[in-house]
Structure formats: C-alpha cells, structure tokens
Design goal:
Beta-lactamase, 19 helices, Penicillin-binding protein 2a (Domain 2), alpha+beta, single chain, elongated, 2 domains
C-alpha cells in the first residue's frame, strides 16, 4: 500500500487571488489614465484635436466667382457670363432605380450606358461630372428626381452677343471659364475674380448632410472696357467678309484707328468663328491675323521712303526725277515700272506708284538714316498691346544692306509688318509727324506721342497721297463722297519659298480721312484674291471706301469736301 504525501490547497488559491487583484488594479489604473488623458485633451488642451476633429466631417465646397464683362468703348456688351448649373455624381453614393436612370438620361440627352460608364470609371472617387453648363430649370428637374448621389453646382457660362464680329479680339473661355484666346486670355487675371467657398458637413461616407455657411464670399471679376466701337466693328466685319467672298480670297484683315489717340476702333479678320459654338474648329481660325500675322507691305511703304527724302531736305514735292526708260539696274538686279513714265515729280511718283522713282529717292539717302527713319516708325519693334501672340515684324539692320536691298525696302519688300503695325505707322501722316501708342483698351488719359517727322513733311506727303485717290492715281475706288481721302495702294507678290510668285498676291490699301484733318486711319489687307482681280486699288480700296464712309457718318465727322459728287466710274490702275 502506497502512501501519498499531503499537499496544501491554500497556497494555490492565494496565488490565483493575487494575480486576479493585480490584473484588476492594472485595468483600473489604465482606465484612470485614459479618462485622465481624454479629460485633459477635451477640457484643458483642445487647440489641436478640436480643429482636427472638425476637419474630418466639415469640408469646403467651392463657389464660382462671376467673371467680369467685356464692354466696347460705349459700354455695349461684348462678353457676359450667365449663371448655369452643372450636374455631378458621387460614384460611391450613386444608386438610381431603373426609372430614375431612364429619366436622368432623357433630361441630360445621354444614353444610360454613357451615364453608367462615366460613374463606373470613377468608382473609387467621390466626384464626377455628368453634364456641365445646363440651364437652371433643367437642373431643377434632375434634382427633383431625388436620385441618391446626384447633385448640382452653380457655374457661369460665357456668352458673346456680337458672335463672329469681334471674336478675334475678344477670344473665348474654356469649360472651366478660363480665358483661352484674345482679351479673355490676356486679361484673364482681371476678369476671372476670386473663387468663394461654403462650409458643408459630410458623414462617414463623405455624403453632404448639411450646408453650414459661406466660409468666404466669391469676389466678382472686374470689367474690361475696350477701345473697339461695336458699330464700326460690325461695319468693318460685314464689308471685309463681302470682299473676301467676292474675290475668293484666302483671308483678310482690317484695322481702323482713331488718328487722335491711337485707339483701335475696329479690328476684323476673315475667316472668323463663332465663340458661342462648341463645335470643333481648326486652331488657325482663332488667330487674330491683324496682330499676329506678318506680310511684306509692298507699295504702301513708298510714302515713308518719300517722307524720309523730304525730311532730310534731299527732295521737295516738285523735285523732278527721270524714270526713263521704266527700268533701273541696281547691281545685278533690275527694278521695273509697269509703264515708262519718263520724268516725274515726287508727287507723281507716289501717284503713279513708280518703283524706279522711289528707288532713286531711297538710294540718295544714307543707309543709316534710312534705317533710323523706318525704325522710328515702329517697323521691327513691338507694339506692346498686351495681346497674345503679337508679332514684332522684321526690319533688317542697315549694316547688312546692299544697294538693291535698300531699293526694295523703299517699295515694301525685304521687311515685314502686321496690319496693325502698318496702321500705326500711317498715324504719323495723320497726326502731323507724331505717333501715339496704339491700344485695344479705352484709355482715361491721352497717350504718349513719339515724334518721327516734322509736321511740314507729314502734311506734304498727305497731300501727295490725296493724288493717289484720283482719276490719275491708282486708288480712285477708295474715294469717299464729301470727304478728302489720302492713301496708298499696294499689290504685293507673295514669297513662295523659292522666290516671288507671279500668281499669288496680297491686295493692300492704307489711308486716312478727312485728309484736311485726319480723324480715322485704316489699313485693309486681302490675302490671295483668286477671282481674277488682285490689284490693291480694285480689291482692297473699295472696302476702305465703304467702311470709311460709314464710320465717318456714324461718328458724325463733318465733310471737308461737301460739294464733291460720288465718283461712279473707275479707271484701270497699275499693279502697285
């Protein structure tokens, strides 16, 4: 028989009780620490946790700012923003039934597959647009369907009352109301305003459950007032479009300036585009060719070469130059006239647009002075209008000239300028030798003037250019009944890459009225007319006449030749 030793059960019970009390005390101490810490953070030190806690359910919903208006010089609307709504969905909440989905697709003009596909592509996000910029009434109909996860936000849509007429000047905005071209782009920082925000409360699934208040009010954009006169803009647009279609031209540009202050009263291009349309358009159509595109001015440069000779005292208006036999060898090249005009005074050299005559004038001028005169007129210099894509033009430095290059510069080849640059240069003749800085904005004070020639020289050349707009000149069709007109034609052969083409031309006319005291300066350029006529006096001059006549009357400018009768018949003109 085996005998087992006796064991004490109390020792085991005491160990168990000790461990139990130790665990209980540890749990109580942990609870005390947690409660104390929570109390400290909730009561004594809330600076960090309270903002962080609020940041989770409270968010900011952006509020679009009203974009500023674009106005013409008389306060007429050229661009305005109208309130619209944009429909968006939260893919995490989106859950319409079949009937709601059909009704939603019908109102939005979308297919059910398009809607589902758009939401499914953004399944991991909380936001996707279904359709932007719809009418508030349509948005209210959609919200009335009470579809889970479908919301509407306020936005603005840009509207251009003048449509195509001022499209190249004003430009347009994109779907996010940001300027993309023209004034809308260059003055976007002025027009766009500052976006506001509204506080909202979201639940754990990021659903908006309550609007609180405006965190910051949106700041509307400022208005921009242009120098453009909408009445003259429409007139110029209509007449230029008519001429481009009639002559089957590639394109055309027209600039009308206020001769006193250099303000751009009208600036149009063809072909144009409708900024209110959302259809795809070739990007080149958006270009404001009057500012961005360059061309060789041709014979419209001859008055400047003549003015330089007069200003230096080398010639007078009645100085006689022999152009016989209608051609002149310059180095290895030959300069030709369309006819042998024989002996011509300086006035008739402009009137007949003699290449030989103006070449002889140019070659008698020191190249450095000839270059300085053209340079002071702004050729090869920026206009500083602030317009996007503004072209500077090209004027080669006189150190690289030979005699033939100096000759060609006198009749408008070898340099390039924009339509606006040409119009600005002609201001020198209109404003007695002074040139104001041009502007697309209406200015509150007079611009700075730059002297380029004496008032005597400017008046003399202006008088010569009046003879161009006569039966003996090349631009009879530029005449305006009741007004004296001064101007110059240009029929420019285009450079086709391997030399100048005999089949591609630009028809140009630059002029001013009333010639006794010019108030308006205009340049018309029509590129590649292909309907048979291509001379500047036949293609561009009639556009000048129509637009100038209408503009003078709209601005109530008194006639300076009231007894003149309309010139109904035109004589043939030469090619320059």
């Amino acid at each position: 028989m085996m005998i087992y030793p006796h064991t004490d059960c109390r020792t085991s019970d005491d160990d168990y009780a000790g461990r139990w009390w130790f665990l209980l005390v540890a749990i109580l101490l942990g609870m005390v620490v947690l409660v104390g810490r929570a109390s400290y953070l909730q009561v004594l030190d809330r600076q960090f946790l309270q903002p962080e806690g609020n940041a989770r359910p409270i968010g900011i919903r952006p509020i679009a700012a009203h974009r500023g208006r674009v106005l013409d010089r008389n306060g007429e609307l050229l661009a305005i923003s109208s309130p619209v709504k944009s429909i968006w969905a939260n893919p995490r909440e989106f859950g319409p039934d079949d009937q709601q989905l059909r009704m939603l697709a019908g109102i939005l003009g979308m297919t059910i597959g398009d809607i589902r596909g758009r939401v499914e592509r953004e399944a991991g996000r909380t936001f996707t647009f279904l359709k932007r910029r719809i009418s508030p009434e349509m948005a209210d109909r959609i919200l009335g369907l009470q579809i889970p996860g479908v919301y509407a936000d306020r936005e603005y849509q840009r509207y251009y009352p003048s449509g195509e007429v001022a499209a190249h000047v004003i430009g347009f905005t994109n779907i996010d109301d940001k300027g993309q071209e023209g004034i809308e782009y260059s003055y976007d920082h002025v027009l766009r305003g500052v976006e506001g925000g509204r506080r909202i409360i979201r639940d754990g699934r990021r659903r908006v459950i309550e609007d609180l208040e405006n965190a910051r009010e949106p700041v509307p954009g400022r208005d921009v007032r242009l120098s453009i006169d909408q009445r003259l803009q429409y007139l110029a647009y209509r007449e230029l479009k008519k001429a481009v279609l009639k002559h089957r031209a590639r394109s055309g540009s027209l600039v009308l300036l206020d001769a006193e202050h250099g303000d751009v009263l009208a600036m149009v291009n063809q072909p144009s585009f409708n900024p209110n349309s959302h259809k795809p358009i070739k990007s080149g159509v958006f270009r404001n060719r009057a500012i961005t595109d360059l061309f060789e001015p041709g014979s419209t440069m001859k008055p400047f070469a003549v003015a330089c000779g007069l200003e230096l005292g080398l010639f007078r208006p009645d100085s006689v130059i022999n152009t016989h036999p209608g051609s002149l060898r310059v180095g290895t090249n030959v300069v030709k006239d369309i006819h042998n005009y024989g002996a011509l005074d300086v006035t008739r050299i402009l009137q007949k647009s003699s290449n030989v005559g103006v070449t002889k004038i140019a070659l008698s001028i020191p190249s450095s002075k000839f270059f300085a005169f053209y340079n002071n007129l702004g050729f090869g210099q920026p206009l500083e209008t602030g317009f996007p894509g503004e072209a500077t033009g090209r004027l080669p430095h006189h150190r690289g000239w030979n005699h033939f290059e100096q000759a060609t510069l006198s009749f408008g080849y070898g340099l390039s300028a924009s339509t606006l640059q040409m119009a600005r240069a002609y201001l020198a003749f209109a404003k007695d030798g002074m040139i104001p800085a041009v502007s697309l904005l209406r200015r509150s004070e007079n611009p700075k003037l730059y002297p380029v020639m004496s008032a005597k020289t400017a008046a003399a050349v202006r008088t010569m250019m009046e003879r161009v707009v006569s039966r003996e000149g090349t631009a009879l069709q530029a005449a305006v009944p009741g007004y004296r007109v001064a101007g110059k034609t240009g029929t420019v052969k285009k450079n086709a890459g391997r030399g100048y083409s005999s089949g591609l031309h630009m028809a140009v006319f630059a002029g001013m009225a009333p010639a006794s005291r010019p108030r308006l300066v205009m340049v018309v350029m029509i590129d590649e007319p292909s309907a048979g006529q291509y001379y500047g006096g036949v293609v561009a001059a009639p556009v000048f006449s129509s637009v100038m006549e209408g503009s003078l009357r709209l601005l109530n400018i008194a006639p300076d030749q009231p007894d003149s009768m309309p010139l109904l018949t035109a004589q043939g003109e030469g090619p320059l």
